[in-house]
Design brief:
Layout: H1 4-7, E1 21-22, H2 34-45, H3 58-68, E2 75-78, H4 81-91, E3 99-103, H5 108-115, E4 120-124, H6 133-143, E5 147-151, H7 163-170, E6 175-179, H8 191-195, E7 200-205, E8 217-220, H9 223-232, H10 240-251, H11 254-277, E9 282-283, E10 290-294, H12 299-308, E11 311-312, E12 314-315, E13 325-329, H13 333-350
Parallel strand pairs: 1-11, 3-4, 3-5, 5-6, 6-7
Antiparallel strand pairs: 2-8, 7-8, 9-10, 10-13, 12-13
Helix pairs in contact: 2-10, 3-10, 4-5, 11-13
The chain binds pyridoxal-5'-phosphate.
Residues 26, 80-82, 106, 151, 155, 179, 181, 205, 207, 217 line the site of pyridoxal-5'-phosphate.
Subunit structure: Homodimer.
Domain Aminotransferase class I/classII large: 19-343
EC number: 2.6.1.9
Length: 351
């Protein structure tokens, strides 16, 4: 009954075991403060629950446009940026035209392309985990894919690919997607080029800045691109509660969000320094709210031992170029301390 391309897929899996410290999904470690939740509660009470949401998310788009210095017409919202990745894969190019991306990277680029039966071009990163310019260039020249997805910074490696290389590659591609899910922790962006009508669109999400439960993502692009994407968007994809909560948090709670992301950035630097001090541990540079690190022991063993001690990190060691690697999200100071203490114990026990 199901298409072969669907039977080949596997359903999304994530570690759901309850642990004392969860550092596996790159979420913001801080929940909204009580005073802000009270404001959210009040705003929610005013929603007409019997009515469909605003399909254009008009007010939320205005707020986001102002925050990012663009026009509301440059924005379309998704049920998470995941949905926008799917919409792009649906709408850009003909079905027989391919989708390219470096690997390892965020898995939804592959899942969406595979679901829609599009040809896939996966280009392994270099050993330095930067984009392989020559190999990517060859794919673009030889196969002319419709989309090049770039996670900027890259998940799971945490680094920003060289901008010069990306600029040279962008000249060869129909449309590049700069997926800036971790923008708030790095500040590098393609927004200017995207709104000037160059061949790039930007993806952003509220998931990494404290609102993962809402499922709100955004695409920023030239007006004509946004207009086309509105044609394939499910009409009521962002629920009224999500629109209302996001509006309250991004206006009245914006200082909280800014302070929280700043705290994560300083914790990132502290955690990095502390991890680097541990014997045998290699830490990779990161511009996001997570790190890759490697120990002298098999990653599965370290992952399991940490879990037994109450810390959940992500095992990414099965991915190309990431043998022995684990990914840890930056948590609150006390969570990071707990993780460091448990990692030290694990290394001692295994050593
Ligand atoms: C690079 C990247 N893009 C997109 C997403 C998905 O974000 P959302 O929660 O908005 O669907 C993630 C989530 O981890 C991500 O790492």
């Amino acid at each position: 009954m199901f298409a072969k391309r669907v039977r080949k897929l596997s359903a999304y899996k994530t570690e759901t075991s309850k642990t004392k410290v969860k550092l596996s999904s790159n979420e913001l470690p801080y929940d909204l403060p009580q005073w802000l939740k009270e404001k959210v509660k009040k705003a929610l009470a005013d929603i007409p629950f019997n009515r469909y949401p605003d399909p254009y998310a008009t007010e939320l788009r205005e707020i986001l446009a102002q925050l990012w210095g663009v026009k509301p017409e440059n924005l379309i919202l998704g049920n998470g940026s995941d949905e926008l990745i799917l919409n792009l894969t649906l709408a850009v190019g003909e079905p027989y035209e391919g989708i390219a991306y470096p690997i390892p990277t965020f898995p939804m680029y592959r899942v969406c392309a595979q679901t829609l039966g599009r040809p896939i071009y996966e280009i392994p990163l270099g050993e330095d985990l930067d984009i392989d310019e020559k190999a990517t260039s060859e794919v673009l020249d030889n196969y002319n894919p419709a989309l090049l997805f770039i996670s900027y910074p890259n998940n799971p490696t945490g680094n920003l690919f060289s901008r010069d290389r990306l600029e040279r590659l962008r000249k060869k591609v129909t449309l590049m997607v700069s997926d800036e899910a971790y923008y708030d922790f790095c500040g590098e962006t393609y927004i200017k080029q995207a709104t000037e009508g160059q061949n790039v669109v930007v993806l952003r999400t509220l998931s990494k800045i404290g609102l993962a439960s809402l499922r709100v993502g955004a695409l920023i692009g030239e007006e004509s691109i946004v207009k086309e994407l509105f044609k394939v968007k499910m009409p009521f994809n962002v629920t009224s509660p999500s629109q209302v909560i996001a509006k309250v948090v991004l206006t009245e709670g914006i200082d909280f969000i800014r302070e929280a992301t700043q705290k994560v950035i300083s914790e990132r630097e502290r955690l990095r320094a502390e991890l680097q001090r541990l014997e045998g541990v290699k830490v990779f540079p990161s511009k996001a709210n997570f790190f890759l690190f490697k120990t002298p022991f098999p990653a599965e063993v370290v992952h399991k031992a940490l879990l037994q001690k109450g810390v959940l990190v992500r095992n990414v060691s099965y991915l190309p170029n990431l043998q022995g690697c684990l990914r840890v999200s930056v948590g609150k100071a006390e969570e990071n301390d707990f993780f460091l203490e448990k990692l030290q114990q694990v290394l001692k026990e295994l050593g």
